[in-house]
Amino acid sequence: MFYIYFILFVLIVLAVYQRCTIATCHSNKRLDGRTAIVTGGTSGIGLEIATDFAKRGARVIIAGRFEKKGLEGCNHIIKESGNKEVMFKLLDLSSVQSVRKFADEINKSEEKLYILVNNAGVCMAEEYITEDDMSFTMQTNYFGPFILTLLLIPLLKNTGRISEPSRIVNVTSQAHFIGKMDFRKLNDIQYWTSFQIYANSKLCLTLFTRELTKKLKWSNVVVNNADPGYVATFIIKVHNPILKFIQYLLVQVTQVFIVKSPRVGAQTAIHVALDDDAGAVSGEMFYNCKLSKAAAMAYDEDLAKKLWDESIKLVKLEREEVIKV
């Protein structure tokens, strides 16, 4: 009975904490005529972010791995916002080839890009080594966004202005606080547990934000981290029908009583993408729509530089592509 009471106590404390720290983006900024990309914008937090942008008049491109889900997401956003300037594009972040194809299409079709939200991610997914010799989770959560961002930097640079810089929002996680770095085992799926790989990928994304900020120092592009906190979504993929039903019930219940709903969880990323004060800083962490602190390791400049160099090798970026950053 002691353990049951303890668990209930922890859940109550978590619920109270979440309710007391819920924040909302109060920016009234319009995005009419401005293009925004939201990866993973077909469901969960990403769908809420994309819907918010569409309501503000943006031309929204949502990217994801599944066309059916993407088209359903587009229809939902159009219905909710009344904005028909919403489209879906296929993007598999666990494939360098897919990322390159997506980036090439965007660079050819879009004259400007005001906002890039790297939101897509997986947690405790069925782990395997991809065709690019990387961990599926690491590539989806970090290496994919890494190369995608760098390939879109020229477009973001050409769009941003001193008075209104283009913005990159990297959606990280509380899990980055327990992330670990071992360059010899970055993609070793036998060495790490599934959740540890997830935590490592989010730490890498946070380090990437810091190093990219240094590279973009004299440009009109800012990049910041958005930590949504504990959100009830379906990021953890369950395939067993019974477990999937249980997961569905837990998500519905917890987002009412314990953790954040996707709409609430999306607020910090929206804040980072729109708020004037958030646009005045770069390389920072935001939590509950406020400037916050990342894990101490995220501020290790030598570690961030080493990860940058290693990442360029692993995704096989060409020298001329790196120079453009």
Which helices and strands occur, and which strands form pairs?
Layout: H1 2-21, E1 35-39, H2 44-55, E2 59-64, H3 67-81, E3 86-90, H4 96-109, E4 115-118, H5 136-159, E5 166-171, H6 194-215, E6 221-227, H7 241-257, H8 262-265, H9 267-274, E7 285-287, E8 290-292, H10 301-315, H11 319-323
Parallel strand pairs: 1-2, 1-4, 2-3, 4-5, 5-6, 6-7
Antiparallel strand pairs: 7-8
Protein model, in words:
- This protein is of the alpha/beta class and 325 residues long.
- The protein has two domains: 91-228 and 266-323, Rossmann fold, CATH 3.40.50; 231-262, no CATH class.
- The chain is built from eleven helices and eight strands.
- Strand 1 (35-39), helix 2 (44-55) and strand 2 (59-64) form a beta-alpha-beta unit.
- Helix 5 runs parallel beside helix 6 (194-215) and helix 6 packs across helix 10 (301-315).
- The longest helix has 24 residues, at 136-159.
- It is globular and about 50 Å long.
- The termini are far apart.
| CA(first)-CA(last) distance | 58 Å
Q: What quaternary form is this? A: single chain
Q: What is the topology, as strand order, of the major beta sheet?
A: 3-2-1-4-5-6-7-8
Order of helices and strands: HEHEHEHEHEHEHHHEEHH
The H-level CATH homologous superfamily of the largest domain, spelled out, is NAD(P)-binding Rossmann-like Domain
Q: Give the class from helix and strand content and strand pairing.
A: alpha/beta
What is the gyration radius calculated from CA atoms? 19 Å
Strand elements, count: 8
